[in-house]
């Protein structure tokens, strides 16, 4: 969802275009965050490819393992992350328009989706452990815990980042002219979305 800014002074527009011109060579959020995203996607991709290769060698074991997964919780977590990404996009859009109060509410909503995701994933893990299904039980669940756990660490890191961004917005550190850190944190959050959209179908559905 794109947030439209309806009111700009001639000075605001001049400043915007001068800034855009001077930084046209740099991607949104800066080069470093995109380098991080690239490395993380490669890491997740390697894990997923290995998981799929092992699935061919242990087809019956993987099919039995998927039968023990909590599909409703996984689907709910997918919706949560997508909702969180939408909230973050709106938060950044509002900040670019100079509406810090609205931006803070959107970013806080994104943080809440990440926290609820973490709680649901914890419930899922606890249920598995309660039934004696832990890391190392077999090939399927070793990869299940490794891939989903690695992703969960990223979600938690994103929640912490967004919490710092929310505090910065609330204190006035981030605003229309200064929002690079918020933009970078949003890109990291969207990377978590993308990674889950790769992990979710491979582990839970295929």
**Cα gyration radius (Å):** 20 Å
Biggest pleated-sheet summary = none
The best one-word shape is: elongated
Terminus-to-terminus distance: 30 Å
Number of helices: 7
Mean pLDDT: 85
Order of helices and strands: HHHHHHH
Strand content: under 5%
Structural class: mainly alpha
Low-confidence stretches: 7-23
Q: How many individual β-strands?
A: 0
Amount of helix: over 70%
Structural write-up:
80% of the residues lie in helices and 0% in strands. The protein has 7 helices and no strands. The chain has helices at 10-22, 31-57, 59-67, 71-96, 100-130, 139-170, 180-205.
Structural descriptors:
mainly alpha, 7 helices, 206 residues, elongated
Layout: helices, strands, pairs:
Elements lengths: L9 H13 L8 H27 L1 H9 L3 H26 L3 H31 L8 H32 L9 H26 L1
Helix pairs in contact: 2-3, 2-6, 2-7, 4-5, 4-7, 5-6, 6-7
């Amino acid at each position: 969802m794109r947030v439209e800014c309806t009111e700009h002074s001639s000075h605001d527009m001049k400043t915007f275009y001068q800034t855009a011109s001077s930084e046209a060579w740099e991607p949104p959020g800066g080069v470093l965050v995109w380098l991080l995203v690239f490395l993380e996607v490669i890491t997740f991709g390697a894990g997923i490819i290995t998981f799929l290769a092992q699935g061919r060698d242990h087809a019956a074991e993987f099919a039995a393992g998927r039968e023990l997964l909590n599909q409703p919780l996984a689907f709910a977590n997918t919706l949560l992350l997508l909702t969180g990404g939408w909230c973050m996009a709106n938060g950044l859009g509002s900040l670019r328009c100079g509406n810090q109060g609205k931006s803070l509410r959107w970013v806080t909503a994104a943080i809440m989706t990440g926290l609820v995701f973490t709680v649901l994933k914890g419930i899922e893990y606890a249920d598995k452990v309660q039934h004696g299904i832990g890391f190392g039980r077999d090939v399927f669940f070793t990869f299940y815990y490794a891939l989903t756990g690695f992703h969960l660490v990223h979600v938690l890191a994103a929640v912490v980042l967004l919490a710092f961004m929310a505090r910065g917005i609330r204190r006035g550190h981030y605003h229309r002219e200064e929002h690079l850190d918020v933009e970078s944190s949003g890109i990291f959050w969207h990377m978590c979305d993308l990674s889950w959209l790769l992990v979710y179908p491979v582990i839970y559905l295929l």
